[in-house]
Amino acid sequence: xxxxEPKKIKVCYIDPVSxxxxxxxxxxxxxxxxxxxxxxxxINLRAGLPWDNLEYHSFEALVSADLVKAVYWASAQGxxxxxxxxxxxxxxxxxxxxxxxxxxxxxxxxxxxxxxNISNRTSIxxxxxxxxxxxxxxxxHYGQHHLxxxxxxxxxxxxxxxxxxxxxxxxxxDASKYAVENDYAESIILGCSxxxxxxxxxxxxxxxxxxxxxxxxxxLAQSMARTKSLGWxxxxxxxxxxxxxxxxxxxxxxxxxxxxxxxxxxxx
Length: 268
What we know:
By secondary structure, the protein is of the alpha/beta class. The chain folds into two domains: 9-106 and 216-267, Rossmann fold, CATH 3.40.50.12500; 108-213, Rossmann fold (3-Layer(aba) Sandwich). It has ten helices and nine strands. The strands form two sheets. A five-stranded mixed β-sheet has the order 4-3-1-2-9, with helices on both faces. Helix 8 links the parallel strand 7 and strand 8. The relative contact order is 0.18. The mean pLDDT is 93.
């Protein structure tokens, strides 16, 4: 490294499903948005877990232990920030507990932070009403219920988003127009990390900001990774106390690289 060359930041994006087929599309998408000083690595979880979605709470339960272990692995690998690639913000608090000083970012929370800086009222476009309870609970927990005017369903599944992009885009546009016209949304949040690239067409049509949660998470992860130089890493006091501050229990997490992680892909 040259004397005045800034240190590269390291960010890890965890896709908490077992489908490695999704990683190349993510890599191509992120390559045009990540900063030059960012080393970005994508991983998915091991085979045998839910393939392409976490729409169901039982699916969340199946991946939770592997996700927490993968976050612990990322911290041990020296990443500055890690992104949990699901709008449910799965295991966010559990992951922060084992993250060391690494920053843990989740798409819903990141999107709400972006929306709060550019609008007074936003609407979240969810795929199915099945998702409503989980996302509403997260919004309340983050203290952002005053910001979110509505959750509008476009009646599409994650599988639809991945495999039927044309009809999914139309459904997202119809739901977004409804939110703008009836719920007075000043910005739109797409409530799924599988909506890659759709925000561009939507915001060009609507004339307001449409927030892609994956990009919101990447943007915040890069920003927060840089602030680590100020000593702003994840706290481990009180509610975020790590288990090995009480006893040498880290061994429970050491098997991550062997047992929990599937494919790895570096974004160039």
